[in-house]
Design goal:
The complex is a heterodimer of chains A (399) and B (115). Chain A is an alpha+beta fold and 399 residues long. Chain A has three domains: 145 residues, PAS domain (Beta-Lactamase, 2-Layer Sandwich); 76 residues, Helix Hairpins (Orthogonal Bundle); 146 residues, 2-Layer Sandwich (Heat Shock Protein 90), CATH 3.30.565.10. Chain A is built from twelve helices and 13 strands. In chain A, the strands form three sheets. A six-stranded antiparallel sheet of chain A has the order 2-1-6-5-4-3. In chain A, strands 8-10-11-13-12 form a five-stranded mixed sheet, covered by helices on one side. In chain A, strands 7-9 form a two-stranded antiparallel ribbon. In chain A, helix 10 packs antiparallel against helix 12. Chain B has 115 residues and is mainly alpha-helical. Chain B is 43% helix and 10% strand. Chain B is built from five helices and three strands; from the N terminus they run H-H-E-H-E-H-E-H. A three-stranded parallel sheet of chain B has the order 1-2-3, sandwiched between helices. In chain B, strand 1, helix 3 and strand 2 form a beta-alpha-beta unit. The longest helix of chain B has 13 residues. Classes of the chains: A alpha+beta (399), B mainly alpha (115). At the A-B interface, helix 7 of A face helix 1 and helix 3 of B.
Chain lengths: 399, 115
């Protein structure tokens, strides 16, 4: 830094200086070296007159001295420069060139890909013209602010959102197809057999039921969106018997068409009373029962046990299915995760993430115990007494 | 009509019957193979892909590998947003993305069963 000023004696840069009495200017080289952003100073020929350590690191050099004296062209030649669309970055748009051309505050986000390397780095690059008394002595100061982590996080968030949209629209298509299908069947039937009102009535009931499934899905997506954004979910807590709720859900699954699994329900207590949201808790139980059925062969047993323990009501659903690998057990509660052995099974991966989030709002939790090829056991624990987290004021289970 | 969702299975089969076609249903690939092995000879298979038990990918692979069924045209019936890609992957002759107009079942059946 001091070299720069001495290189042009008698001409002070127009930038403001520290007052002599502060003595801080003697620390400026150390300060600039300590700045986390990369800083370079170029002259009009494009030669690097100065670079700090951060700039050297970003350029893949061991030290600033290896950078100083080189042409900026030879330094950037080590990289493929890309724009935010992944296209080759137009060199005329480089902030230093625009600063030379007189643009007051040029900046650009540039993706640097080192030749032969895969780990791209993104930088917010800004350049400023440092005017000096003689035009040919003007300098351009460029700063490189590494935003790789932010870019990757943003890309991840966009990916999750896109997957969510894809899954949400996919999931709604099946009940929607049933609504459309039954409506079309009913209309055709009205033409062919206008007096068979019994069939028409049954199809109308089916439309109603499918619309109900669709409504449940939309509510679930809404909950997941709220949970994901850390927003309160409007829980409707009321006095409930867990044994009754679970028994009812099991009966529903058992009675569904084409059902060949054998369900068993046992409970330590005749009733387990707590304050929970019946609709959402019903959805969670449905989800776990549905998974047990989906991921185990027909004809096998699904055992449901209820008990109380440490002030909690507990439900365990145990199947004899394909099981979940140890690695996947960590991940199945994440949004949009599908286990490696889950391909071909209808469903989305939204369910368990949402279930954990909803239970968290009621102060509860869901855990899994599983062995590949042997089966899985999911356990839900819900505090009997309302907890601080209950009521949806706070999301203790951000996803 | 190989479809795991009982409502859709009923809808699609009822529609095909009302259009005058002879139709059998199966809730997964295993049931579909059993129907074929019992001697029933369809001229087209409508196939959902994501099903518990033997899924649509596995069934289409088995059909292709068995010379008795390798020429049997398959129409994918699914909700997936990349259904076009999936249909191409399994060598399907066509695809119908749920929900669709039931008349499409008649059109596809006529198109495949003419010869």
């Amino acid at each position: 830094m001091s070299d720069l000023i001495e290189a042009d004696p008698g001409r002070a840069p127009s930038a403001p200086q520290a007052t002599p009495s502060s003595g801080i200017e003697s620390l400026l080289p150390a300060i600039v070296a300590a700045v986390a952003d990369g800083i370079t100073v170029l002259d009009r020929s494009g030669t690097v007159l100065f670079a700090n350590e951060a700039a050297a690191r970003m350029m893949g050099m061991d030290s600033a001295s290896a950078v100083i004296g080189q042409s900026s062209q030879s330094l950037t030649d080590a990289f493929e420069l890309l724009d935010d669309e992944g296209e080759a970055f137009d060199l005329a748009e480089m902030p230093d060139r625009r600063a030379w051309a007189g643009e007051p505050e040029p900046e650009a986000v540039i993706r640097f890909r080192r030749h032969g390397h895969k780990d791209d780095r993104w930088s917010l690059v800004r350049a400023r013209l440092l005017r000096r008394e003689r035009r040919e002595s003007d300098l351009v100061v460029t700063s490189f602010h590494d935003i790789t982590r932010l870019v990757l996080e943003a890309q991840d968030a966009v990916r999750v959102r896109d997957e969510f949209m894809a899954i949400a629209s996919h999931d709604m298509r099946t009940p929607l197809a049933a609504v459309r299908g039954y409506a079309q069947l009913a209309r055709r039937h009205l033409v062919d057999q206008p007096h068979d009102l019994e069939a028409i009535d049954r199809w109308l009931a089916d439309i109603d039921e499918s619309a109900g499934r669709l409504t449940g899905l939309v509510s679930e997506f809404m909950d997941i969106t709220l949970l994901h954004g850390g927003n309160p979910v409007p829980l409707q807590l009321q006095r409930l018997d867990l044994v009754e709720l679970v028994t009812e859900r099991v009966r529903e699954h058992q009675g569904s068409e084409g059902q060949t699994h054998m369900f068993g329900v046992s409970s330590d207590a005749s009733e387990i009373i707590g304050f929970w949201d019946p609709v959402r808790l019903g959805r969670v139980v449905d989800n776990v029962l549905g998974n047990a059925v989906k991921f185990s062969p027909g004809g096998t047993r699904v055992e449901v046990r209820l008990w109380t323990e440490d002030g909690c009501g507990c439900v365990a659903v145990e199947d004899e299915g394909i099981g979940i690998s140890e690695r996947d057990q960590e991940l199945i509660f994440g949004p949009m995760f599908r286990a490696s052995n889950a391909r071909g099974v209808a469903g989305t991966g939204l369910g368990l993430a949402g279930s954990r989030g909803i239970l968290g709002l009621m102060g509860g939790e869901i855990t899994v115990n599983s062995q590949l090829g042997k089966g899985s056991s999911f356990t839900i624990r819900l505090p009997l007494a309302p907890t601080a987290a209950a009521g949806g004021r706070e999301s203790s289970a951000r996803q | 009509m190989v479809e795991d969702d009982p409502s859709l299975r009923e809808i699609y089969a009822s529609a095909l019957r009302s259009f005058g076609h002879d139709v059998r249903t199966a809730s997964d690939g295993t049931a579909a193979l059993a129907t074929l092995n019992n001697g029933w000879r369809p001229c087209v298979v409508f196939l959902d892909l994501r099903m518990p038990g033997m899924d649509g990918w596995e069934l289409s692979r088995r059909l292709r590998e068995d010379e008795r069924w390798s020429a049997l045209p398959v129409v994918v019936v699914a909700a997936h947003f990349r259904i076009d890609q999936e249909a191409a992957e399994i060598g399907a002759v066509a695809w119908l993305q749920k929900p669709f107009d039931l008349a499409r079942l008649d059109q596809e059946t006529r198109a495949q069963c003419q010869t």
